[in-house]
Amino acid sequence: MLDATFVRIDTDDGISGWGEGTPWGHTYVPAHGPGIRAGIETLAPVLIGADPRQSGRIEYLMDKTLPGHPYVKSPIDMACLDIAGQVTGQPLPNLLGGCFGTPTRVMSSVSSGSPESMVALIKKYRERGYRGHSVKVGGSNTDLDIQRIRYIEEHRLADERILYDVNRAWTRRCAV
């Protein structure tokens, strides 16, 4: 189970903006679930009363009060963007600079299993239109991981992109 923090910012005009922060455990990225709440406790006194639509001012106040710690500030940024979108009637992409003409490729997430079950899952994603897959390897058996990778590569389509995510499980020696 992951430690999640949900942030709600309420304006004087009765608009509520929501944000969320969920680091992937304590050892996956340099972020700590309870650290979000501790950081917000530090930031809240300087942010209360500030206009959440003034993103530059909010960013300045947060950086001055708590340098670094972007994982703490992210849910606050989200909540402020939510408020700005509601106030202006604009969708999030417009608030972040607009949409591009070409879509962004989205990757499926393929859990570890037998090589055959992993390819079967990739085939299901293909039917849904995915052409990119993040394949989870990095278990305790490096030889099995190599079998998985070889089998998946044998069944990869020419237009597919596959990333093999070892989730920090391999040492340098294992990777070599």
Keywords:
two-stranded antiparallel ribbon; 176 residues; Enolase-like, domain 1; three-stranded parallel β-sheet; single chain
Describe the structure.
By secondary structure, this protein is α/β, with parallel strands linked by helices. It has two domains: about 5-95, Enolase-like, N-terminal domain (Enolase-like, domain 1, 2-Layer Sandwich), CATH 3.30.390.10; about 110-175. Helices cover about 45% and strands about 15% of the residues. It contains seven helices and five strands; from the N terminus they run E-E-H-H-H-H-E-H-E-H-E-H. The protein has helices at about 35-45, 55-65, 70-90, 90-95, 115-125, 140-155, 170-175; strands spanning about 5-10, 15-20, 110, 130-135, 160-165. The strands form two sheets. The chain has a three-stranded parallel sheet, covered by helices on one side. Strands 1-2 form a two-stranded antiparallel ribbon. Helix 2 runs antiparallel to helix 3 (about 70-90). The longest helix is centred in the middle third of the chain and has 19 residues, at about 70-90. The mean pLDDT is about 90.
